Amino acid sequence: MKVKSKIFYWYVAFLLAFTLLLLLPAPDKATLIKYHLSAAGLRMLDLTFIVPEALIWFAAFYGYEKMQRYSQLIKTGDEGKQIAKLARGLLILAIGLPVNAIFGAILSIIAAHEPAFKNPSVIIGNYAELVFPLLAFVWISMGARGLGELAKTQPRLWKLNTTALAVIILGIAFCSLIVLDHRELRTTYHMSPELVMLTLGIPYMYIWFLGLFASVELQTYSRKVAGVVYRHGWNLLIGGVVSIVLLSILLQYLSTLSTWLTSLSLGWVLLLLYALLLLLSGAYIVVALGATRLTKIEEA
Length: 300
Hints:
By secondary structure, this protein is mainly alpha-helical. It has eleven helices and no strands.
């Protein structure tokens, strides 16, 4: 991102705010005792999480900026309007990453000082994490559908059926995990199984469907795009979007296993967290690479 870009300054502001919120509060004593850490050791671990978070956010904002640039280069045509919708979806995803992280840190600080707020903070945090992906994939799906209509392309029926079946299977498995252990459910969500499935399970399944279906529509559109280089850029972009959706699904599955996760040793917890951060970084980097390639083609 160019230094003069407003997005760059937002990125820096988000990163500074997150770093301060993560490092300034006193370490949680229960965490120190559980994992046999000193306060300095916990601070060092916190610092190791800031770097991959910064990489993920940078890739997400960079991908948006390049996609927005691409939409401006072809803004004279109807295609540019649809590309702009994709860019807006990427922007919402990008903003959601630091906003949710910062909001979660604020909730944790409040809960640490007000124990009665611990359960409400978990509930509020779960719903807050739902908002940005939902809005983002609504815009991405609108852009994908608009591009398909302009190119007069429609995904084949078997692709639509496969996407719907995949979401149904994933949704059933997700809901099964939700109701598998009521004690674990209460620890994770602090709500009844019925309320979790209605207000979190169904919206997340809708997000997964939007994301996967939009990817299918973009893939169908990209096959009609003239030029192998163009198609390669679109394939990178689509691959990144699919990866983001799949990682979102994985994260929701893991959220239902929070009791099991907290029973793991610190080494395994860190390995899992670093692996997820690395994968998520890669997904946004792939999106950024695809958007960059498309932009370079138009600027050439």
